[in-house]
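Project channel, design review

CF: Before we commit to the Brassica rapa subsp. trilocularis constructs, I'd like one complete example in the thread so the newer folks can see what an input/output pair looks like. Taking DC-UbP/UBTD2 N-terminal domain-containing protein.
RD: sounds good, go ahead.
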Amino acid sequence: MIPSREKIKKPKPWAHTEPITRAQLMNMREEFWDTSPHYGGQREIWDALRAAAEAELTLAQTIIDSAGVIVQGRDLTLCWDERGAKYELPRYVLSEPTNLIREQGQ
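CF: and here is what came back for DC-UbP/UBTD2 N-terminal domain-containing protein:
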């Protein structure tokens, strides 16, 4: 598989099954990243994917390129490493849902 040279982008707008708060979203993200190495693949690639998911797009692109991650579909929801291991990222670790509950003071 040849790495794509297209620039990565944020996922398309999406809605969670029910409105959630930022705190709930952050808990979902932490739970995913805490358990992600158990899905297979290399810990270093999972760490690079997390760093990319939490970075601005330009830095994310640099992280992905440096780690040798092969992105399928440009939005990081499906990636591969150079050994052929598959990495699937849920949209909630990549962007906020359209039905995020805005809390007071935000």
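RD: helpful, thanks. The two ends are 43 Å apart (CA to CA).
CF: The mean pLDDT is 91.
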